[in-house]
Every structure is written in structure tokens, then in C-alpha cells.
Amino acid sequence: MKHIFKHIAGCVLLSIIIFGCKKEDAYKDFVKDGAIIYPGKPLDLKALGGKNRAKLSWVVIDAKVSRFVIHWNNRLDSLEMPAVNTGETADSVSVIIENLPENNYIFEIVSYDRNGNRSIKEEVAAKVYGDEFIGALLNRPIKRAGSMSGTAEVYWGTPEQNVDAGIIVSSRPGWFEVRSTDEIAKIEVTDVLGRSIYKSSAIDARIYEANLPTSNAVVLIRISLSNGKTIVKKVRI
């Protein structure tokens, strides 16, 4: 009985050794070219969207990193830039990508070392603005402007004050014209410091034009309507 038990134990031990050797051989197949080296990936990745451009910034703490590759637009567009090692523990990196159409973007960044090893990718989203966004913005009217102790002060109104105002102002050097869907009660023109240049009251018309005693300047035209609304337009004359 003891001989049978020893025989079984020997077979089990032999099987374990053979299986272990096979696992070792399988592992060696995966690392036969050496261990995989991953350069440090971009850290603290951030994106700021602007008008037809985006700024990306990140931190790298691996001195072996030699370059970065940025992909966007479903990897159809890319940008490669070198890494600059300043000798600091962590280097801050930033880049501005220009000429981007207005859209939402996912930027993918990968770092490489000099041997071509690549890091794990990092991704960040950004909204890039353009003419469509700008066209949807509402103007903020100037409620009043003045000068105090040589300092210009401008008080802004809410954007809604210009909505459906029905005011069109045309200008050329020394002249301006106002067209309104409501009757114009009075008009005052000042410079940006609040100094009066021109006044006219009891207009009671929807079209008004006038010559000004100044030109090649930015002025504020305050338009008071018969319905009680006051609109301020900034124009160059």
C-alpha cells in the first residue's frame, strides 16, 4: 500500500513539474524580445477651447520621454512635438492647435521614448468655437459711461436689452444714421469717456441722421425710443 501511495505521489509531483515548465515556456514566448517598457504617460491632461483653436497642457515626469504625438478627428489628423527635458522632477508641456473647424473634439496624446516605445494613451475633450457660436451671442449694451478722476467707467446692461430692439446704426467719418422700428424720441452722442458730442431731442421719427463735429473716433450713440427703451450703440465715425 505504501508503495502504491509513493507511486501516486511521484506521478503527481512529476505532473506539477511538467506543467510548471510548460507555463514557464509559454511566458518566455511573450517576453522573448525583452520586457515591455512603457514611457511615462501625460499626466493632468487639460484642454481649453478657443476660436478655431485649442490649447492642450499636461505634465510629464519621465525623463526618457522624447516626443509626443497628438491625434484628433477620429485619428485622421495628428501633430508630433518633441519633449523638452528641463531636469525638473515634473515638466509642464503645452501646445496650441490652430485652424480647427468649430466642433467638439477628443484629443488623444501618447508619449514615446527614443527607442520607439509608446505610453498608454490619455484623452481629453474640448469644444472649439467659431463664427456660428459668435453669431449666436447677444450684444451687451452700454447703459452709461463716464469719467471719474481721469478713469473711464463703463456700466453694462444685460444682453436682453438689445433683443428685438429694431435698431440699425450706419456711420461714416463725421456722420451717422439711425433707423428704428419704433419712433426715436431723442439721441445723444458721447465719446468713450462720457463727454457729450451731440444732442437732439423731440425727434419723433423712425429715421434720423446727423453730422458730427468729430471724425475718426469711437463714439457711443444713446438712442431713446418713444416706448421708453434706451439703446446704446458703439460705432466708429
Keywords:
237 residues, mainly beta, Immunoglobulin-like, 2 domains, 2 helices, 15 strands, elongated
Shape: elongated
CATH architecture of the largest domain: Sandwich
Number of beta-strand segments:
15
CATH level-four homologous superfamily name of the largest domain: SOR catalytic domain
- Number of spatially distinct domains: 2
> What's the tally of helices?
2
Largest sheet: 6 strands, antiparallel
Distance between the termini: 115 Å
User: What is the CATH fold-level name of the largest domain?
Assistant: Immunoglobulin-like
Instruction: State mean pLDDT (0 to 100 scale).
Output: 80
Q: Which structural class is indicated by helix and strand composition?
A: mainly beta
Uncertain parts: none
What is the level 1 CATH name of the largest domain? Mainly Beta
Q: In angstroms, what is the radius of gyration?
A: 35 Å
The run of helices and strands is HEEEEEEEHEEEEEEEE
Please estimate the helix content. Answer: 10-25%
Provide the β-strand percentage band. over 45%
Please give a quick description of this structure:
The protein has 237 residues and is mainly beta. It has helices spanning 2-30, 131-135, and strands spanning 43-50, 53-60, 65-72, 77-82, 91-97, 103-113, 122-128, 142-148, 151-156, 167-172, 175-191, 196-200, 205-211, 218-225, 230-236. It has two domains: 43-132, Immunoglobulins (Immunoglobulin-like, Sandwich), CATH 2.60.40.10; 139-236, SOR catalytic domain (Immunoglobulin-like).
